[in-house]
């Protein structure tokens, strides 16, 4: 419920900010002229355009989501790879996911974790999930993996981080 209320608060404040910007632009145009109001609008657009460019959950210089690698693809059978989806947390409006890529060893007997990633889906206005570390281990049972995920949920208001909440998830994932 907190995620929904925070998102609605962000939307409401953003709409209020937009209405203030329209009134300020009108006031600047009346008092200082059209050129000053155009400079003001361009300045606002330049700030808004750069506010969300960096995503800490992407690989550097890429649009691909950050992935933690555990094993080289060369050490597993290429035809036996699978992706396992685990729901770390479900809220009223969004979901935190863990994706685990695994495959069988060259002999085709043991499931080996290859890589993992974490992401969010749903209504995420005003929050940002930043996974810090992901660890996936084999267990004695060949069809189970033990996982540990640490990360931060940044609670933002108009793009500024107000609070950072540490999240730790651990559990067992079942292979196919």
- Quick check: average pLDDT? 86
The class by helix and strand makeup works out as alpha+beta
Tell me what portion of residues adopts beta-strand conformation.
35-45%
| Helix and strand pattern | HHEEEEEEE
**Spatial ordering of strands, largest sheet:** 1-4-3-2
Rg from alpha-carbon coordinates: 22 Å
Poorly predicted residue ranges: none
Separate helix tally: 2
The tally of strands reads 7
How many angstroms separate the termini? 33 Å
Give the CA-based shape: elongated
Estimated helix fraction: 25-40%
Largest sheet: 4 strands, antiparallel
Entry keywords:
about 180 residues; alpha+beta; four-stranded antiparallel sheet; 7 strands; elongated
How would you describe this protein?
There is one protein chain. With 176 residues, the protein is an alpha+beta fold. 27% of the residues lie in helices and 43% in strands. The strands form 2 sheets. It has a 4-stranded antiparallel sheet with strand order 1-4-3-2, with no helix packed on it. A 3-stranded antiparallel sheet has the order 5-6-7, with helices on one face. The longest helix is centred in the first third of the chain and has 31 residues, at 2-32. The model has no long low-confidence stretch (mean pLDDT 86).
């Amino acid at each position: 419920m907190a995620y929904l209320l925070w998102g609605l608060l962000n939307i409401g404040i953003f709409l209020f900010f937009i209405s203030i910007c329209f009134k300020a632009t009108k006031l600047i145009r009346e008092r200082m002229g059209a050129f000053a109001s155009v400079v003001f609008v361009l300045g606002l657009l330049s700030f808004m355009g750069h506010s969300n460019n960096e995503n800490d959950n992407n690989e550097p210089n890429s649009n691909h989501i950050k992935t933690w690698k555990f094993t080289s693809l060369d050490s597993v059978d290429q035809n036996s790879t699978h992706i396992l989806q685990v729901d770390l947390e479900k809220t009223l409006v969004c979901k935190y996911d863990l994706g685990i890529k695994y495959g069988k060893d060259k002999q085709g007997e043991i499931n080996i974790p290859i890589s993992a990633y974490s992401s969010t889906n749903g209504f995420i206005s005003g929050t940002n999930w930043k996974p810090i570390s992901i660890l996936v281990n084999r267990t004695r049972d060949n069809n189970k993996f033990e996982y540990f995920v640490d990360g931060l949920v940044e609670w933002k208001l108009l793009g500024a981080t107000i609070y950072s909440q540490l999240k730790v998830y651990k559990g067992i994932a079942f292979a196919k």
